[in-house]
C-alpha cells in the first residue's frame, strides 16, 4: 500500500482545517477522529470526496493539537483499502460527487452541465448538456477539468469521453380530417 497523500489547507475559520486526502475516501466517522472528538480535541469533522474537514474544540490550537489530528488522519487513511478495489457503482457515486463539487460550478457559470453517463472498466463517460452540448470547448472542458479532477483521485479511470448525443426524432403527421377551406364555402 502506498503512503496516503495528506495536505492541510486553511479556511476562513481559524478553528477549521481542510485536509486534502487524494483518492482515498474516509468513512463518515473514522474511529481515529471520533476518538479525538471524545477527548475534546476536535469539536466536529466532516468527510467528503478527497477531503476531511476538522474543527478544533474551544481552547485548542493547531500548533499544539495539529500533529495529533494529522497523525489520526494519516492512520485512518493508511488503514483503508486502495480505491482501485471500488466497484463501478461505488466509483460512479464518488465521481458524481466530484463533478458536483469541482466541475458543476464551472459548467453552470457557462449555462451548461456535465453529468456522469456511465463508469465501466476504467472509462468514464459523461453527458454534456445545456450550453456544453455541442460547444467547441467541450472537449477541452473534459480533458482539462473533468479528467484532471477525476483522475487525480481515481487513477484507475484511464479515459474520459463524452456520451454520443441521442437523436430524438419528432414525428409530424397530418390530421386525416383536415381539409383546406375552399373559397366560397361557408
From TrEMBL:
GO terms for molecular function: iron ion binding; iron-sulfur cluster binding. Residues 95-160 form the NIF system FeS cluster assembly NifU C-terminal domain. Transmembrane segments: none annotated. Pfam families: NifU. The lineage of its organism: Bacteria, Bacillati, Actinomycetota, Actinomycetes, Mycobacteriales. It comes from the Bacteria. InterPro entries: FSCA_dom_sf, NIF_FeS_clus_asmbl_NifU_C. This is NIF system FeS cluster assembly NifU C-terminal domain-containing protein. One of its GO terms (biological process) is iron-sulfur cluster assembly. It comes from Mycobacterium saskatchewanense. May be involved in the formation or repair of [Fe-S] clusters present in iron-sulfur proteins.
